[in-house]
Amino acid sequence: MVGNPSPIKWRVCYWIENVLVNLKPRSGKIGMNMIEIDMLFVRRIDMSNIVPQTNKTEMKKSTLLVVAAIVLLTVGSFFYFRSGTEVESTRFTEQNTNVDSDIEEQKPLNAYGKLDDSCDVKGINGGGELVSGSQVANLAQGDTINLRDFGVIGNGKNETVGFQKALNAAVGKVLFIPKQKGSYYLTRQLLIPSNSTLVFESGTIVQATDNLKQSHANFEALFRIQNADNVIIKGNSALLRMNKSAYKGEHNHIFMINGSSNVTINNVKANNSGGDGFYIGAYKTKRRFSENIKIRNVSADNNRRQGISVISARNLIVEDCEFSNSNGALPEAGVDVEPSLPSDIIEQVRFINCIAKGNNAWGFCVALIKADNTSKPVDIIFENCKAIDNKVGFTNRYFSEASSGLVRFIDCVAENSHEAGFWEVACAASGAAKEYNRCITINSNIGSTATDMYRQYAGFRISNLKSRTKKVLGNSTFTDCRAIKSSKNSRMDYGISTLDKASYQKVRISNFVSQGHDKKDINLGVKDFVSKEGISVIR
Question: Helices (DSSP H) in 106-170: which residue ranges?
Fold first, then answer.
């Protein structure tokens, strides 16, 4: 090829012609692809290697042609990429506009209140995974169902059918329950399925009809979570209630969490039931217990039996809650942890920063009467809890000889109890252990009606019960506890007292302080023949 310029000229002209032909409109744009641009430089390098040095005229012409082609290609590429960027930018803007319009049309969340994740509220995304509360607020419209869409308006008429249809349709999504248009929503028992997230608007009231089934064999609750997993209820202070006077039994609860797992209930009021505000167990289910339950920032007032009953549970957290004014059916406690069967489970049960107030009997109660040699050890902690104006503040009752495990009270306070602030009743020394750490009773045996059949009148008491006598009481430790009398209406003969006619084992009292008592700080028996063996006092 050296010395033969004509083929070079022909090749250059042919290449430029092809380039110019390719510079045609593409959907209104001028341009070429990156392969063509790369080939331009490759071919230019090839030409510089083969152009003969002896033919300067041909070389100049070829060079001019190449430069012209490069200029045209550069300008064309500039307009190509610029126009392409503008189109993509426009397309992105249009997509954003569509997203914004979708959000504006999503009325259930924006029109009825913003969701938050104060209780780690979760929903189910399109992939079936739980998402956090902050993400729930951003779910697409298809992931949120409004109760209104099922014709349920809350006009005080029975709307059970529509309400249940909405619950069933909302599985894997969020069911938004707006404030009623009338006085309240009225419904029979509602079954909450697995993978449900309920969000109530503030001010919502749901009331049960007066004809729920009441028999022990077949009773109904207002909200029944049974054999279900992954249920979240965000209450926003919604009021859930019954007409208490319509019920004469003890099993018509507001919430019945039965044989279920991964249940979170936050910020609801469970009032005026024919049973408990909250029931947690596994009654007539294939499971032995409910598991991974979180109850936070709720209240239960004026319920017929209990504010909350814990029958069989593992990994239960009850935090920042108030249980008040239980009355009508025994035991009438704010909190009652009481297995019904030897096979029931009470493991990792925690009450933190809770209040029991004005209950007809006990503020906080643990009863282990059913435990036998087959029962699992219990694990219960009450921490920073307060019992105010109850018959008894905190009580452990009827621990069987075969019961095992540990019940701990940490930094708990009993105030204005009608009897003792802390009372152990008929708890066998061979049974589960009790520990009281930095607990305080203030003004126990308050009021003119205060009575004590055993004439102990103490802030802390250990005694038998005539109907449930144990031969040996004990397995109790009191550390850094205090009994305080500061009111004339309080009768506190003793800071801590043990009952006569009983033997004791493994009772340890250390650094106990009593202030304002009428007789003595520590009474280890009213009569001389009481056995003091097994009681150690470290001052």
Answer: 107-112, 133-136, 160-169
- Supply φ then ψ for residue 49, to 5 degrees: -80, -25
Domain boundaries, the chain: 5-105
Distance CA 200, CA 58 (A): 86
Name the phi and psi angles at 325, rounded to 5: 55, 35
Q: Output phi, psi for 455, to 5 deg.
A: 55, 40
Tokens at 112, concatenated: 């009825």
Task: Write the pLDDT tens digit of every residue in 476-501.
Answer: 999 999 999 999 999 999 999 987 67
Q: In sequence order, what are the beta bridge partners of 476?
A: 434, 507
Rounded-to-integer distance, Cα 212 and Cα 169, Å: 24
Element (H, E) at 45: helix 34-50
The predicted-structure confidence for 20-66, as pLDDT tens digits, reads as follows 444 444 444 444 444 444 444 334 434 334 344 444 445 455 555 55
CB-based contact 216:253 (threshold 8 Å): no
User: Which pTM was predicted?
Assistant: 0.74
- CA 6, distance to chain mean position in Å, is 86
Residue 260 makes CB contacts below 8 A (sequence gap 6+) with: 225, 226, 227, 228, 229, 231, 287, 290, 291, 293
DSSP 246: G
Instruction: Note whether 443 and 489 are within 8 A (CB).
Output: yes
Instruction: Tally DSSP H helices, then E strands, for the chain.
Output: 6, 40
DSSP state, 526?
A: S
Residues forming beta bridges with residue 175, ordered by sequence position: 145, 198
